[in-house]
Amino acid sequence: MDTKENKFFKLKHWKVMALCLMICDAFSVCLAYFLALWLRFDGEYSQIPARYITPFSKFILPYAVGAILVFWIFHMYRGMWRYASYTELIRTFCGSATASLLHTVLITLLFRKMPMSYYIWGAGAQFVFLLMPRFAYRLLLFYKVNAFKNNQKSGRVMIIGAGSTGQMLLRDISLSRDMNDKVVCFIDDNPNKWNRFIESVPIVGGREDILVAAEKYKVNKIYYAITSASAEDKKEILGICSEAGCELKQIPSMAQVAMGRVSVSAMKDVAIEDLLGREPIRADLTEVFNYIHGKVVMVTGGGGSIGSELCRQIAAHEPRQLIIFDIYENNAYAIQLELKKKYPDLKLETLIGSVRDSRRLMDVFAEYHPQIVYHAAAHKHVPLMEDSPCEAIKNNAIGTYKTAYAAMLNGCERFVLISTDKAVNPTNIMGASKRLCEMIIQSFDAKIKAGQAAQIPQLFTHVEDEDVDPDKTGEIFKNIRTEFVAVRFGNVLGSNGSVIPIFKRQIEEGGPVTVTHPDIIRYFMTVSEAVSLVMLAGTYAKGGEIFVLDMGSPVKIDTLARNLIKLSGYKPDVDIKIVYSGLRPGEKLYEEKLMAEEGLRRTDNDLIHVGCPIPFDTDHFLGEMSALMTAAYRNDREIRRRVADLVQTYHVTNPEVTIVKDARYVALT
């Protein structure tokens, strides 16, 4: 017989085990009913009448074969008995009960009625004998694994949450041969569970006992296994756990929990966003995606952290076409490859270009006519922009102006600007440039609503740029309906330039972790939350709004750094030093979500608000944009003065610059 035939006839391990179990079961059912008959007559075989022993002898072997068939039908030979649990118990009970019922009916009809105790004791003994080899395997495996772990250097695990999820984790750890971990205690806030046990592991108390229990039981790993806690409770519990200096992990997604797929291998590290202490925003995006479906959507800065997430969510909801526009080809190429692999039917265009280049923008908009534009392209790094203020104006303010102008002329329906809380009472040129961006889209929207789109100046970077209306007929400006809105964000966790990746890198290098000031605070949100807000703005927009997210309480950067060090298993100022480097140029201790003058009104989403625009002289503002652009391209050293004249809330912190506010530019009230 050749190799292929050998492989064909070779039994798999589980089939060999199933065959052995069948033989054991056949013996068990025979033994069960023999013992029932034997015990009925006081355990003396000689006392059993022939009228009972004869039918038993003729029936028991055919019954054993039939019982095996019944057990096969109930899938009693395909289970993994090392994981035997309640489900296997029920399956075994049903199979045994069915076989016993058949035994009672058939032996009575085919032979004679047996003693009542024979039926009852036989059925009971059969069920017990069937369970014994199955659960004995798990029991022996449990003691074998634990004996091995006791002889090895093992991890000592505390599980937070003595519910079903915690029990699944305990079972997985107990039966795993691949890890040396051992669960030594549970923590649960329910007092009714205290001083009780789950599979011999004690439940020692609530959250206030975490640190004491960690020390008492010499815990070096903590697994968070609570699915029902609020964000505030989760923050508090994880905060306490981080003080223990143990490796800290949490359950995977709720979907995996619901399917019963909780295992140690699926546990994930506790992320810093888990310590923000607020519920994540879960907006109903049905209306958003219905709006996007079948439309041409363009994302500027599509390779960045916010831009790429926008592209992912847009691509998932069947736009007619998605256009990624970015100056940095590596990021654009990366998101292009990702989307093409995940959405092979997506009509995708990835274009390289700068938002400063009006000719490139005009060509792109004229060719593709995007209906929705998400403008995420911007310079965002505060200290770098302080060193190169003209670049902030060129890229952020003038880039937004040129992109908005091209969108307006080419039939764009919605233009959504990504702004920042640094635009509120800015103390740095980056924040001031983003406030200029907000004022630009407010000015555009006001002019369009007034039917005066033709009065919006076209900015020429080069003298050879063509005027979009050379004959001055104004025909090109008729029927313009573009709605312009801004979305104001706080800091995005994990985004390019965020403090989190910097802190992680510093921790990996052994420190020190640099924090600018012990009292500096910031608002934070996740990338998915930020993108949800951007997309909601596209549907809520009426034109001219500045959308603001209720981001909860601000977070101290110092606390953030210390928590991240603890989550990495180190002690702040002991294992990893924290160094305060001082506020950087243009940086302030706190960020604001709105200017005092703006006020708020609610939307249908309780966590999303709209800031009422501050009125200002739109005509004068638009008239000054050309001069501002010229100054920026000449790298004017007085660029901050010009910006401060236009942005009255800009507080220049550069000691070399003295600003005297011109009354002509003061916001109208």
Write a short abstract of this structure.
With 669 residues, the chain is an alpha/beta fold. The chain folds into 3 domains: 11-146, no CATH class; 152-270, Rossmann fold, CATH 3.40.50.720; 286-462 and 475-646, Rossmann fold, CATH 3.40.50.720. The strands form 6 sheets. The chain has a 9-stranded mixed sheet, sandwiched between helices.
**Residue share in helix:** 40-55%
- State the CATH architecture of the largest domain: 3-Layer(aba) Sandwich
Strand order of the largest sheet: 10-9-8-11-12-13-18-22-21
Total strand count, please?
22
Mean pLDDT: 82
Residues in β-strands, percent = 5-15%
What is the CATH topology assignment of the largest domain?
A: Rossmann fold
CATH superfamily of the largest domain: NAD(P)-binding Rossmann-like Domain
Helical/strand content category = alpha/beta
- Main sheet specs: 9 strands, mixed
Number of helices: 21
Task: Write down the domain tally.
Answer: 3
Give the CATH class of the largest domain.
Alpha Beta
Shape: elongated
Radius of gyration: 36 Å
For the terminal residues, how far apart are their CA atoms?
97 Å
Low-confidence stretches: 1-9, 658-669
